[in-house]
Write a structure and sequence with these properties.
With 277 residues, this protein is of the alpha/beta class. It is built from 15 helices and 16 strands. The chain is 35% helix and 23% strand. The termini are far apart.
Length: 277
């Protein structure tokens, strides 16, 4: 007998999770009750062989777990696109997507939806070493690739290019650290708004690839003080500095104040200094 719900001592109605079923069991159960919520636990081979059938009942599926986890669930870009509703029920970091870059790039909407579920992207040769242009927004996704050579290329028509670069700097750095980054296209007519830490990390990568960039720094007084030498050294790249949060006097040395004089002239709000030797 299936228990639909139990009532706790506090009187709160608690719905237990569905008992895991194989694909065949789930299909049989759903014939009797189309509104039944199910959990799938079956071999990777059976799950993959029945992706099309499971798509028809995707709203009823709560989770899909492989009973043979060593056998990775590998699908093509087309399958990821066609079966994204079903594949989104798999556990985090378990899917492998294997296809050409063009095919993967053509299924970006589905891959973005499945980003948390994807463990690895395996790019088949297109040919090997071909430079692939990607949007900074998708850096985290492409960072799951075990191969490939990528160039960050912003969309000239997008209004949030600079924000996308700043928000995804850790993913961009991960691509760089793994030797998958080949370059970053210069940001034409845009300014990156970022905190001091983000600005330092981005600047290091941009300078390596001779990428033109401009920074609008927004950060706390304490962080601006700590990063004052970086700020001074990159004055030519600064469009402005804004203190946020609890504004306090900047704590810098007299020497740092002299170095940063031109940069501090770009402060967007009033500031004061506590100078020390």
């Amino acid at each position: 007998m299936q228990v639909n719900a139990v009532r706790s001592a506090s009187g709160v109605r608690v719905v237990p999770p569905p008992t895991p079923m194989t694909v065949a069991q789930a299909q049989a159960a759903l014939k009797n009750n189309r509104k039944l919520t199910i959990a799938i636990a079956d071999t990777t081979a059976n799950i993959k062989a029945n992706l099309a059938a499971l798509t028809n009942v995707a709203p009823q599926i709560k989770s899909i777990v492989s009973t043979t986890p060593a056998d990775q669930l590998t699908v093509t870009a087309a399958q990821a696109k066609s079966f994204s509703d079903v594949l989104s029920r798999t556990p985090t970091n378990t899917l492998v997507i294997s296809d050409s870059f063009d095919a993967l790039n053509g299924s970006l909407t589905a891959l973005r939806k499945l980003n948390d579920n994807i463990k690895t992207l395996n790019i088949t040769p297109t040919p090997e070493g071909t430079l692939q242009r990607i949007d900074p927004y998708d850096s985290k996704l492409w960072g799951k690739s075990i191969n490939g050579r990528f160039e960050i290329a912003t969309n000239p028509g997008a209004a949030d290019n600079s924000k996308s670069l700043a928000n995804n700097y850790m993913a961009i750095k991960a691509l760089e650290d793994r030797g998958l980054l080949a370059g970053i296209e210069s940001i034409k007519g845009a300014t990156i708004t970022a905190n001091v830490d983000q600005s330092q990390k981005l600047a290091a990568i941009f300078q390596k690839y001779d990428t033109e960039f401009y920074l609008n720094i927004k950060d706390t007084s304490a962080n601006i003080s700590k990063g004052i030498e970086f700020i001074a050294a990159n004055n030519s790249k600064l469009t402005g500095i804004t203190q946020i949060g609890n504004i306090k006097p900047l704590e810098i040395t007299r020497t740092q104040n002299k170095l940063a004089d031109r940069a501090l002239a770009k402060m967007k709000n009033a500031y004061s200094l506590n100078l020390y030797q």
